[in-house]
Amino acid sequence: MSSLGRSSALIAAGTLASRVTGLVRSIVLASAIGAIGQASDAFTAANQLPNNVYMVISTGILTAVIVPQIVAWSARDDGGGSHISKLMTLGAVVLVGATVVAMLLVWPLVWLYSSRFSPDQLALAVAFAYWCLPQVFFYGMFALLGETLNARRVFGPYAWAPIVNNVVSISGFLVFIAVFGGDRTALSEWQTADGAWNLPMIAALGGIATLGIVAQTAVLAFFWRRTGLSLRPDFQWRGIGLRAVGTLAGWTFLMMLVGQLVSMYQQTTISGASGDDAATTVWFNAWLVFMLPYSVIVMSIGTPYFTQISEHAAAGRDDDVRRDIGRAIRILGLLCVLAATAVMVAAVPASRLFTNQTDHAVAAAPVLVGFLIGLVPLAVQFVIQRTFYAYGDTRTPFWFTVFQGALSVGFATIAFALFRSEELLGLLTPAIAAGQSLSSLAQVILASWLLRRRLGPLGMGSSIWALVRFTLAALPAAAAGYGVYVLAGASEGWMAADKLWAVLACLLIGAVVAAVYVVVLALFRAPELKALTALARGRLGR
Question: Which letter, b or e, does each residue of 61-72 get, where b requires 16 or more Cβ atoms within 10 Å of its Cβ?
């Protein structure tokens, strides 16, 4: 296997392991604080806040400006050591400043994402946020160190370090359960020492979450010596060339900003359901489950296709690009339809992993199903968007992202208008998740039309027909899987009794759905099945 192949395999394996341990982390956290309740939603909102702040300061700076500079500096005779020292110093100063400002503005920041929380719940979220916001600094340093390691061809630590975060967090949450007890969903009188939440408990939970981020950053610092560079504080920032490439950040930053504004609106809308219905915590747990098949499929199948599309686009071979788009959509669609079908059928057992009660799993399952509606459109969107990138066009993706964001906000507004009453509030979060998926479908239709205007006919008819065939094959597979679920007693049976049985239920339902799906496709002699088998054999052979 080539050096590039080994590096790709190492990164892919690290990404998969990180996703799996991240799922375990969320399962243990759910055992500690539950999934449906004011306390769990308060912590989730607080712990998600550092990610939101970090995204704002990093996407326009790190991705579009700093990373290309690191790569360029690394090609210098001195390996870019002096410039990288200046960069790390500048990055640390910016991150410290951003962290301090975020902590000073903690009340309005939490309110922006959770304005419909009750006053006590909002106060608890703010208390958690003080312990979580230092993550902003460590997230930033983790990215700076990791991108520098990658630029110096030290790929492993950046991909595998998040596992350390997950292991530390899992261990810490287990200690929290042992000391304070589990399923602490109550909110009443959290301010007092004898209430449901007190300062030691808040500090322990928030501190554990932050300690995991510190640990993953420390791992990269430990491997820094492999770069062959020495770091020292250097505040002489003039002349390192950041201003010259600053304009590159424009469209990328604006695209991120649209996503953040949409997320902010969605989060503040569903915060009104917190308490007895699925809200913030269920939303992020469902998204985590949704992203597992997406990440694995795109990492193993979609990324190589993107490389091939980029090569053909650079050579001006538009006909080959069009063929690449069709092949990629059909192969990704084959797998994504299977994944979406299996997880939809197993939605209640899958949700039971992240909840402590069966009725909570039943309430959370529709949110997961709402996201899964968008799995295939999101996979197709990956191919279309990357094709624009292959031709050096980042502006067009921004505009169809704005279109998708506007639709998501519109769907969230309609959902709130329809389901704001106490009797229907349980439908609010699932409806917004489904609206997110429908907006992704509309986005990919628009993006495909725009790409067709650029490249000419894309041959999407054959790809759409293939997706229809996959969907038809998924119907008997879904019926078989659901039949197993019903025969096991459905939500009242063993499959949702506890977390261990839920794992076994997911495996069983997934195996049944996959077997029937493959058999039906084989009976119809689907050419994509043969292509996927050949691709898998080639990968295993290497």
Answer: bbbbbbbebbee
Side-chain half-sphere exposure of 305, counting CA atoms within 13 A = 27
Output DSSP code: residue 395. H
Ordered DSSP codes for 27-78: HHHHHHH-SSSHHHHHHHHHHHHHHHHHHHHHIIIIIIIIHHHHHHHHTSTT
3-state SS assignment for residue 5: helix
Question: Which carries the bigger pLDDT value, residue 303 or residue 270?
Answer: 270
Question: Measuring CA to CA, which residue among 272, 276, 335 is closest to residue 302?
Answer: 335
Q: What ranges do the domains of the chain cover? A: 3-234+243-459
Q: Is the pLDDT of residue 117 over 50?
A: yes
Does this model's pTM top 0.90? no
Query: Of the ranges 111-120, 143-152, 375-384, which one carries the lowest mean pLDDT score?
Result: 143-152
CA neighbor of 10 nearest in space, from 149, 154, 153, 159: 159
Separation between Cα atoms, residue 90 and residue 422, nearest integer Å:
50
DSSP H or E run through 200: helix 199-222
Of 340, 256, 334, residue with least CA distance to 302: 334
Would you say the C-alpha torsion 182, 185, 189, 192 has a positive or negative sign?
A: positive
Q: What is the pLDDT of residues 8-35, one digit of tens each?
A: 566 667 777 888 898 899 999 999 998 8
